[in-house]
Amino acid sequence: MTDKPVSINIDRLRRDVEALAAIGRGPDQGIYRMAFSEGDLAGRRWLQSQIEAAHLDYFEDGAANQHGRLAWDGQSPSIMIGSHLDTVPGGGPLDGALGVLVGLEILRSIQESETPLRHPMEVVNFTDEEGRFGGLFGSQAMAGQLTPAMIHEARDLEGVSLTEAMAAWGMDANAALFARRPRDAIKAYLELHIEQGPVLDRGDISIGVVEAITGLFKWEVTLKGQTNHAGTTPMHMRQDSFQGLAEFAFAIDRILEEHGSPHSRATIGRVELSPGAANTVPGSTAFSLDVRDTDADVLSNLSDAFRRTLSALARRRQLMFEFEVLSEITPQRCDAGLVQLLSDKARALDLKHMCLPSGAAHDAQIMASMTRTGMVFVPSIEGRSHSAAEWTNWEDIERGANVLLQASLSLAVGTGETLR
């Protein structure tokens, strides 16, 4: 073992990022590695080859989560570092992937330093974080949050079932139920991720230490009125479903101000009018509603407020409304001790840093339900993500990776034992 401080090999990490970014890249330069697609399979094969080339133990569980393990004894609780390789259609090269590759580089760097460890370490690539079949599948499997019904019902937008997609790879989807890890099997979970927002970039801050991860509810809402002729139906006699949506959208800022917090977000991202003709009053308007906050009580209050607003405007405009809950994710706080540890490591490396919430969901959110969890953000240039324009400067990647390395090393050798 050398007395020289352990640090990551940025040249090796850069080669990994560039090699993986070439897998699944489309003509538009976006990356297409959706879960259980050919691109995803190629990326997973590449990761396995890198884990094995580093002489780490390779393991794949029933949820198709990939693990690389250092100093594994099968008995001691591990320090886990993870994220995901799957992408949204046309995604960027860093979302998820950077966290996995930084985890791999951390294990390689510690292995090369010959540092004796009290706890084994592992890097994990979680399956389907991005949501082809619902999202966060691999981490939910590890946390024991899946049921046979959830697995059976999971389908993508084309109607392909998760069971079918996994069977095409020679896997039994129900084996995901056996990917569950006991709570005492993981000492701590750490994740590095690009911020996917503009705060760090605009503030010229290299390191974000995540304090809380947003929860959300996502609805599919339908307002139903009466289809009619655009020229012959007087305005005061209309049951215009789109006018109902317009009133609701205008009320969003008020609802957030009255019932939300500074961390509240509400988005209508998709609208479909029926019958959708220029000369016809739309009798039906369907739209999505995505609402997020880092506090469960605030989310509950927002849910009630949005429901009351829809009910009132529907009654006033002689419309009917219905909604379907597409997903609900509980917000989570990161472990206070790990927030302090990560902040201390950033300070020790003389890096400008700040604490902030995550407005996006992550595997860390699920892992926080079963173990101490900490998360580091690095800046996203112009806040761009989920697109080919997504990028982070190499200097910031190196800084974030070294912060995570020092924190995970403290936990693995036992100097972070007293943190709670």
TrEMBL record:
Binding residue positions for Zn(2+) 1: 84, 95, 193
Protein's UniProt keywords contain Metal-binding: yes
Transmembrane segments: none
Keyword entries, A-Z: Hydrolase, Metal-binding, Zinc
Domain Peptidase M20 dimerisation: 215-315
Stored Pfam families: M20_dimer, Peptidase_M20
Stored InterPro entries: Amidase_Cbmase (IPR010158), Bact_exopeptidase_dim_dom (IPR036264), Peptidase_M20 (IPR002933), Peptidase_M20_dimer (IPR011650)
CDD domains linked: M20_bAS (cd03884)
UniProt-recorded Gene Ontology molecular function terms: hydrolase activity, acting on carbon-nitrogen (but not peptide) bonds, in linear amidines; metal ion binding
Cofactor: Zn(2+)
Gene3D superfamilies: 3.30.70.360, Zn peptidases
Sequence positions that bind Zn(2+) 2: 95, 130, 386
Stretches assigned to coiled coil: none
Cofactor binding, note field: Binds 2 Zn(2+) ions per subunit.
Family: Belongs to the peptidase M20 family.
Name the record gives this protein: N-carbamoyl-L-amino-acid hydrolase
Natural source organism: Ectothiorhodosinus mongolicus
Lineage: Bacteria, Pseudomonadati, Pseudomonadota, Gammaproteobacteria, Chromatiales
